[in-house]
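cron nightly-structures :: item 1 of 1
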Amino acid sequence: MTLRLLARAGVRDSMRAYWFWLNAAIFVAGGLLLMLFGQVDVFLLGYRSYGRALAGLMQLALFVVPLMSLLSSAAAIAGARETGALEYLLAQPVTRREVFAGKWLGVAAAVVASIVVGYGATGAVAAAKGVPGLPIAVLLLFTVILSAAFVSLGLWVSAVASTRARATSVVFTLWLVFLALGSLGLMSAFVRWGLPARLLQVWSLVNPIESFRLGMIAMLEPDASLLGPAGAALIGALGRQGLIAAASGSLAAWALLGYLAGRRAFTAAA
């Protein structure tokens, strides 16, 4: 009961922020535009046509979902600490673990709700164009796991940051770093510093944004060249199913370890 009330309050707090609605609107509108005006013709091109259309949705999710998850979770604890609401909440008969779990559930529920609305609207348009529902469902599932990973990271930062502004600046920097060290960043590092190929392949799976990209392309596109050099090497070593499993495992690990680290930091501050 306590956890449910805390989670409900977390959902309300997330949905009060204007940037949450801005990111959600961008995600929904972007997905609809991709399906409405994308060159999707399953009768002429078959699987590859909707695979590439869904790849556009994947790229949109890569930019919007991590940022939306990070900004929402970064404000969850640091913002309450700054206003004094956290001190009042902790004076109630609740434990710090319950407060942290409630904040995580509240933010995650708000983010996932916006994702489901976005993919639901996009899926309806896609179905009208003849796109099978399974790829949309798989993309939705992967995106939910991606959002959980970044909610955990953002809440970890929020647990240790003294102010909302500091937490926001840290998570925004994290988002930029993960994006910059994606496929293009990997190639730049390989050329400039001569890093070993094995290290680049490992980082491709460690980076949550890159692991999401690799897992989804491996699932949606039969052409392994679209994965890039590191991804092509990984699919050669692990196989298509192995790469998908490794990518989803990496995202799940970020979600779990980020949650545990954030909870430890929050409870240690008592």
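cron nightly-structures :: done
Residues 32 and 121 are 7 Å apart (CA to CA).
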